[in-house]
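Case study.
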Amino acid sequence: MKVITANRLLNGDVVWLAENGSWVERIALAKVYDGKEAVAAALAEGLEAEKNQKVVGVYEMDVTVEDGVIVPVRLREKIRATGPTTHPELGKQAQAVSA
Amino acid sequence: MYRYDEFDASFVNQRTEQFKDQVRRRLAGELSEDEFKPLRLMNGLYLQLHAYMLRVAIPYGTLNGRQMRKLAHIARTYDQNYGHFTTRQNIQFNWPKLEDTPKILEELAEVEMHAIQTSGNCIRNVTADHFAGAAADEIADPRPYAEILRQWSSLHPEFSFLPRKFKIAITGAPNDRAAVQVHDIGLQLARNEEGEIGFVVFVGGGLGRTPMIGRKVRDFLPEEDLLAYSEAILRVYNRYGRRDNKYKARIKILVHETGLDELKADIEAEFEKIRFGVLRLPDEEVRRIEAYFAPPPLEVGNPTSAAVEARKATDAAFAQFVAHNLNPHRVPGYTSVTLSMKPIGGIPGDASDKQMDVIADLAEKYGHDEIRISHEQNVILPHVKLDDLPALFDHLVAAEIAEGNAGLITDIIACPGMDYCALATARSIPVAQRISERFGAAERQAEIGELKIKISGCINACGHHHVGHIGILGLEKKGEEFYQVTLGGSANENASIGEIVGRGFSSEEVVDAIEKLVDTYLGLRTGKEETFLEAYRRVGEDPFKEALYGAA
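After joint prediction, the assembly is written out as follows.
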């Protein structure tokens, strides 16, 4: 299973592709793609957004879904989804959990 | 210190305007990311894991209070209230927004700072001994030459698209504190028999995935030939350096593949063509630049201070600080003070905006308004009166930058690692923090003595692990962080590349492994005066290997 991720062009925030082509700042809200074709189509959608100056550095990444929760497979992506482990007061881990 | 003239000021302002327009065009869709990326990199702007990162140049690690205060202001206004001092004497801000960067560069230009050539395949910020202009063992201040090299290399049209990045370091003392032998060009100031100043020249040192110690190409390069000879080296590299494989593109690979003698002959041939041309350094120009680095007026005083001795007798933390964080000054009565950016359990090289403000104040009050950043990620006040140490120390304690650990086991170099860096394969900072906590007790650190631990979070070796007495390299193995340990590296005048001691360790195991190495050293050293590195060089790796992995 995969999600599509990038950074927002303007401020560098980590974002994931969600429904309706929107980019969300929480991985929990990302859209999960399964199967080669679905992932390729989503990646193409992401690259289109890069051309339109919305995001930069689009790529696909592996996730698992555990009890409905999207979990990145690689540590690098876990850290991107939360923030520096050395600064719990910074990054997404420090933002309101309501989203 | 060096002051911009009209040319410098208009040059930096033009560059800021140019970048402002490039950002505007990027946001308007006139530039694609592929087109924009090399432009932003040439202005020090990276995209990392969580955000953009701006690397600001601190030429040869020298700045004043006003500049430090500006860095604090930028941290506070455009970032998350801190900055990170790097192993190339620069500062990185980890959270700037793209739209804010032109404004940040404008603010930097107000205090004669910029981010030019802190990235990209060009000649990077020239680094120098952090005790330059102050150290008792110095032949001459290396910074005028670093400044001359900076002016020559800034936007040098011929060298703006080199095969790969190019790093120059220079030291003015026989005790090399600038790690010159692990740079693309390393320069060591020397005097010939006539008493004239010149340089021992090393070429082709470097770390990364293929670590190499620089090879000596000149025993004595006369001062007047500095630029012509540097230009000759760069020309040979630019012409013959590999461009087919970025991992083989540094000059060290060229030296290795071509052979020293042939490459030296190429350099000398190129040098002969240009040595009497426009790059020959006029004596009056060197002296003019030198005048900018004229030392502050320092009154010769007593080599010992009653105030310091009295405080030492009653304050163990102060005594520890004095024992480790002072470097002998060429003027009796003065000392160079290392402010430790390595609090126990803290993040190596991080400084809060408040700490930066305090450092600026203290430099103005006690240090003739001079500040240095070391490649070991600490801050130095190079000219402090011994009698002022007790008062200075009190301020440092309040600002939490008073750890008396310079050169000790908790004075760890660590790259940002996977907590920030898009290239990293493992985290570095948390390992540094855990080692620092394990060995943090003052008596224990002092007992262990000089021991340099350096940690990189990937093979690119920004944390200089190859030249750590103990080096730690973070890798990824089956999705887990995994740490390889090297022993016996050194970046001083007797430089050496550390050797891998055996199989690596998990994140949970690695601190215990370091402790075993340290305990092994303590058990076999001939006495307290034999450092870890000396002991390792005497006995070899076997006892350490056995401690880690058991008898073979």
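Observations recorded in class. The first strand of chain A starts at residue 2 and ends at 8. Strands of chain A lie at 2-8, 14-17, 23-24, 55-66, 69-72. We will return to this complex in the next lecture.
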